[in-house]
């Protein structure tokens, strides 16, 4: 098969794809504007940050499979894919540990104001008193929204740090408490409002759907305790960003954010988001899944999926 890999991908996995008899076109800087041309004659497309809009899917007669090398498929126009007979698959679970690690790193960093600390010290300033007011993590109530693979990994880390972990069932799937959640000691609360009222850390681990869009809105933020921490390593659109800024300004809410609504598609450039420069935000560049371990695990699964597809089986659709 002819395969276009439109984002960075480990070399060993590209070699494997070629050894399996495929013809691989590795164009890691292909943006959505260049996709149609780059896709010419390809049956399989592998993307990570590159968006796949309807215009691309409506203009190809060879494409049969799009693989998003991550868990979310919200960057791909699924309706257009389905009307053009193109399968859209994701790679669930393989980057869960990496994303949970980043969410937890943001929590620790916010509590100890690590980024401000480092910036001050680098500038030659010594201000020990300013940095002596951390609340600490142990004993805090941490609310986890979404207990899929990433949410569970995050919950396990939070529990290991001695927090009380609370969660709601996935509002979308009515997901029942899993054995793993019980083993971690997760306590389920009745609804989102209760979670917001009682937890001073809220971590989002839900896919972007019409139900979850703006889930963290003005009403919900009105209920979180002053000084609460919101962690978003899922999708920017889960949060009403204006409402979050308001909560930061009126009640000292702080946020660890890896994902933004106005996220650039290209790997380098600039970001136009009021959250990125806000002093109450520790923001990162949508790098939750960006560890060598995670990217290798995702790539190995992509190779397995393409091989299976060649043999007539569609995995993870
Ligand atoms: C995901 O959907 O798992 C992440 O967005 C993937 C990524 O950034 O690589």
Automatic annotation (TrEMBL):
Keyword vocabulary terms for this entry: NAD, Oxidoreductase
Domain D-isomer specific 2-hydroxyacid dehydrogenase catalytic: 3-317
Record flagged with keyword Oxidoreductase: yes
EC class of the enzyme, as a word: oxidoreductase
Domain D-isomer specific 2-hydroxyacid dehydrogenase NAD-binding, first and last residues per copy: 104-288
Keyword Nucleotide-binding: no
Gene3D superfamilies assigned to the protein according to its UniProt record, in alphabetical order: NAD(P)-binding Rossmann-like Domain
Superkingdom, natural source: Bacteria
Enzyme Commission number(s): 1.1.1.95
GO MF: NAD binding; phosphoglycerate dehydrogenase activity
Cross-referenced InterPro entries: D-2-hydroxyacid_DH (IPR050857), D-isomer_2_OHA_DH_cat_dom (IPR006139), D-isomer_DH_CS (IPR029753), D-isomer_DH_NAD-bd (IPR006140), NAD(P)-bd_dom_sf (IPR036291)
Family named by the database record: Belongs to the D-isomer specific 2-hydroxyacid dehydrogenase family.
Protein name per its UniProtKB record: D-3-phosphoglycerate dehydrogenase
